[in-house]
Amino acid sequence: MFRSQRDASQMGRVVLLATIRELSYDCGMTTSSAHSVHFSRIALILSAVWASGFLWYFFQQNLPNLSPGQGDQAITRLDVAEAIFVDAPSLLNPLNYSGSGQQQAGWKYLPQRVPYICTSAALLLAALGLGAMVCRLLLNDFPLTYPERFVLIGAVGLSLQSLWVLICGLAGWLTPLAVLTPGVLMLLVGFRWLLTGTGQRELLLPDRSAPSGPVRCLLWLPVAPFVLHILLGGMTPPFDFDVREYHLQGPREWFEAGHIFFLEHNVYTSFPFLSEMLSLGTMVLIGDSWGGAIAGKLVLTAFPLLSAMCVFSIARRAFGWVAGYMAAAAFLSTPWITRISIIAYAEGAITLYLIVSAMSALLAAGCRDDRIRLRLFGLCGFLAGSAMASKYPGLVSVVLPTGLFLLFITLKHRLGAGQGSSSNDIPSAHRVLRYASVYIAGIVIAVGPWLLRNTVWTGNPVYPLGYSVFGGRGWDSDMDGKWKRAHSASEHSLQMIPEHLLDVTVRNDWQNGFLFAFAVPAVLVLLGNSTTLRLGLFAIWILLTWWLLTHRIDRFWVPLIPVLAVLAGSAWTISSSAFWRLIMIAALCLTCVFNYGFDRLGVVGFHAGLLELSTARRLPIRQDIQQLNESLQGARVLMVGEAEVFDAQFPVLYNTVFDKSLFQLWTSANPDQDVPDHDQQLRSPSEIISALRDHDVEYVYVNWSEILRYRLTYGYTEYVEPVRFQDLVSMKVLEAPQTLAVGSWNGLSEQQQSQVLSWRGGDSLVAGDQWTTILLYRVSKPASH
Q: What angle do helix axes 146-171 and 302-319 make, rounded to 10 degrees?
């Protein structure tokens, strides 16, 4: 008992100040006065108000991709939450994949997926073998936690495996033995090392707040349904336009040819193709393009799962186990992560390499051993280069900021070492150059083969970019201008920045409200923590470059999500009060339940779940393509205006909207002369027939709905008009067309109708309230003698 009330009051203040001091120390702040106590209370209240208010506003928002219209027809997140609550037994049951109206679905169809699971497992094991060997050589003496080590092994291994498939493809070695041998050998060597006792230093992070082992296992159970949903979704047949145009179509063409070569008709396949090479690898292993695509999509689910582990690792090391858990749960529950997994976008790969590059750079910042730090710089370079090998924007979003950060910590470390020591410790140009050279060497190893490939193919290492500097085979100034117009923002008005930020933070259908609700207060309150400060600046960099340098497609900012997830998880350390932590737990539970139900809706994308696979395969295929698959029986088709050809089971010749029109090249009398497309004339009938027969073309397929879309967006050659085909029929080059699809004329906007009618012969496509969208022409057969 206290001798007086005054003693008790003094002791209470001492305990309170000590508690706040300890909490502030954990958060990277210093508190030594009542002013700091007052600041902490204000920060806690403002953080709680922001988080609650943001989530309320977030759930009030309309969902543009789910709403049939505005006003009374608009659908908000609250409407979706109500639907989830009503249908909770179906939408929230992770074992219920029967689907609405789907009769052929259930766990009995899981064995159908076993061949694809085994194929993907084989490629992943080979990748792990390569990654394990490299990480053992570079980081054997550096203490890492088990999750950190596994993330690095996986990320390095997937990049190396992709490079090896590229080498095999360029050399014409696309066989299962060639694709798997290096990784399997490294895996066997790794097991031998384990058996002979060669170990690696593992780091055990002291964390008094971490729950016991059994409790940790139980806490991961609510996250497991998201993992299951991602894995099953990874085996969904491809349905997205870009995926069926080039992400999988390019690998398919190389697989069928037996080697990788320049696809002049598909400019997108000249991009660095890190994730697509893994799909090519599974096609080779399973011996089938469609089956390989399914197995390849399953391999690509490793990227978001490794990203989640990386998010956990960063937050755990900097803020504790609970913060790491909340960050990983927030990341995995974000609908965008499910979406990029089931679609197989390249954003899955660049997201992993962005966050694992950040983790490696943070590890390098904390390393004081010059020898190991130099290795970490090389590893950072390789991982950052892998981001660029996934997608060109990785140069700006990962390679450049990581390099600047490593330069900063090098100068800071050396200057700090120089204080009170000899002048030899002060950074010299030679020392900085040494670190920079190792970082650049890592980048070159990861992305250099792709740049070299393009240089050999086109003379331009970053083809089709940089045309004004490097030029490029099959590219010209008109095509370059068209590309730049299509891939640049329409405006850079500062007044529009708030609107663009709202689009990212609350209006996007697949955003997670938990991220910005807690990342923002974490950055503002925990600026004294170096990890929070660095990741906060990184997040700003990503958003700024997305706004300045891209055409602002929403998925281009997806790599921001793991950074936000770490920051949101760090908010756990804003206060140790039960009030704050109850808010965070409730918000995480609320958003996870909502997001899981939302993930089960079609707005996230076609998720086959446990649907019978042959049925699932047919569902995304348009009726016209299905009809041709059944009727053409191997006849080659020239596709005009159509590039989404992965599902075609007949030989096709096509070009993307940014490539030269094959139809124009083969039928125009002056395609390469300085004559406007609209004014070019047809060749003679004999010349056109000869050109078509030289390429074994038996049919010409014209998709006027796609041409209409292109004319109003990217632009499309004015040479292609209905009158051209009418003339070819009159010239007896083509037979009378077969209509494959029609659309609602009244359903088109006035702008669309005006565009169709402006085409020469466009009125022939319109009949009453319908218009012909797809036509098939047969090439005339030679007269019999």
A: 150
Cβ-Cβ contacts under 8 Å for 404 (sequence gap 6 or more) = none
What's the CA gap between 617 and 242, in Å, rounded?
17
- The Cα–Cα gap between 581 and 588 comes to 10
- C-alpha 140/C-alpha 427 separation (Å) is 27
DSSP-derived 3-state class of residue 776:
strand
d(CA 680, CA 695): 22
Cβ–Cβ < 8 Å for 306, 155: yes
Q: Evaluate the CA torsion angle 231, 236, 241, 247 in order and state its sign.
A: positive
Residues 6+ apart with CB under 8 A from 271: 391, 392
User: Kindly report the CA angle at 87 between 85 and 91, in degrees rounded to 5?
Assistant: 95
Residue 476 to residues 471, 473, 480, 712, Cα–Cα distance (Å): 8, 8, 6, 22
Pairing of strands 699-703, 766-767: unpaired
- Distance between CA atoms of 666 and 670, rounded to whole angstroms? 10
| CB 285 within 8 Å of CB 123 | yes
CA diameter of the chain = 123
Burial 639-669 (b: 16+ CB within 10 A, else e): bbbbbbbbbbbbebbbbbbbbbbbbbebbbe
Strands 766-767 and 738-744: unpaired
CA 698 to chain centroid, in Å, comes to: 38
Q: What is the pTM of this model?
A: 0.92
Enumerate the β-bridge partners of residue 742: 772
Asked if 270 and 211 count as a contact pair (C-beta separation under 8 A), the reply is: no
How far apart are alpha carbons 525 and 44 in whole angstroms? 9
Per DSSP, the residues of 126-185 read: HHHHHHHHHHHHHHTTS-B-HHHHHHHHHHHHHHHHHHHHHHHHHHT--SHHHHHHHHHH
Hey, what long-range contacts does 713-718 have (CB within 8 A, 24 or more apart)? Answer: 713/486, 714/482, 714/485, 714/486, 714/657, 714/658, 715/482, 715/485, 715/486, 715/657, 716/641, 716/657, 717/661, 717/664, 717/677, 718/676, 718/677, 718/678
H-run or E-run covering 201 = none
464 DSSP assignment: T
Task: Give dist(CA 411, CA 423) in Å, integer.
Answer: 14
Query: Which residue matches tokens 């002049």?
Result: 264
H or E stretch covering 740: strand 738-744
For the record, the structure tokens of 421 come out as 């020591």
Pull the structure tokens for residue 258: 């037996």
Q: How far is CA 450 from the centre of its chain?
A: 19
168 to 162, 256, 451: CA distances (angstroms):
10, 14, 16
Neighbours of 173 (CB within 10 A): 17
646: closest CA among 614, 664, 622? 622
What does the CA dihedral 466, 469, 474, 480 come to, rounded to 10 degrees? 50
Mean pLDDT by runs of 10 across the 785 residues of the chain is: 44 40 39 58 93 97 79 83 90 82 80 97 97 91 92 97 98 97 91 57 74 88 96 96 97 98 96 98 98 98 98 96 97 98 96 98 92 95 98 97 95 59 56 94 98 97 94 90 90 92 95 98 91 96 95 94 98 94 97 96 93 94 96 94 96 96 94 84 95 96 97 94 97 96 96 96 95 97 61
Percent helix / strand / coil, the chain, rounded to 5: 65, 5, 30
CA angle 563, 566, 567 (to 5 degrees): 85
Residue (of 576, 575, 560) closest to 521 by Cα position: 575
Q: Between the CA atoms of 99, 590, 60 and 83, what dihedral angle is there, to the nearest 10 degrees?
A: 30
Residue 454 is encoded by which pair of tokens? 């393009």
